[in-house]
Amino acid sequence: MAEPLLELRSLRKNYGALVVTDHVSLSVRPGELHAIIGPNGAGKTTLIHQVSGMLPSNAGQILFAGEDITHLSMPQRVKRGLARSFQITSILPGFSAMENVALAVQARSGSSFRFFGNASQEKGLNGTAMDCLSEVGLGARAHIPAGLLSHGEKRQLELAIGLATKPKLLLLDEPLAGTGHDESQRVVETLRRLKSRLTIVLIEHDMDAVFSLADRVSVLVYGRVIATDTPERVRENPEVRAAYLGDEEMV
Ligand SMILES: Nc1ncnc2c1ncn2[C@@H]1O[C@H](COP(=O)(O)OP(=O)(O)OP(=O)(O)O)[C@@H](O)[C@H]1O
Question: Is the pTM above the cut of 0.80?
Answer without folding.
Answer: yes
